[in-house]
Recover the amino acids of this structure.
């Protein structure tokens, strides 16, 4: 068994050029992996969705906004907007467009669980 420290993993995490945030896979396998991410102050993850599987999130520190919606043609119909902060946990359903933004004054750190494909060939960004 390997033990990983989330803050250490985030400190070494590269910037994801597609998503615009620092992200790293902490542990897991192809079907179920645990990730940690950091979103800088004033930064938004680009809106995107996944065709297969859910994502489970927990906000570790900081505050932000999670928007969710549906893709209709080439545009997004935003349905809901939630304020999120340390300790909050939520699920993003399969096919749901989502965007996490840091609107606080410190980096937003989150952990999430999903298939590896959600950061690969099952991640579809909205323009």
């Amino acid at each position: 068994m390997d033990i990983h420290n989330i803050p250490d993993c985030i400190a070494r995490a590269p910037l994801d050029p597609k998503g615009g945030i620092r992200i790293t896979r902490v542990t897991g396998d192809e079907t179920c992996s645990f990730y940690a991410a950091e979103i800088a102050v004033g930064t938004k993850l680009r809106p995107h969705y996944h065709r297969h599987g859910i994502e489970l999130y927990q906000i570790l520190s900081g505050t932000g906004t999670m928007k969710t919606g549906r893709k209709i043609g080439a545009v997004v119909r935003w349905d809901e907007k939630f304020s999120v902060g340390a300790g909050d946990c939520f699920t993003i359903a399969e096919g749901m467009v989502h965007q996490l933004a840091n609107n606080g004054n410190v980096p937003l750190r989150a952990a999430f669980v999903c298939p590896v494909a959600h950061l690969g060939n099952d991640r579809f960004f909205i323009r």
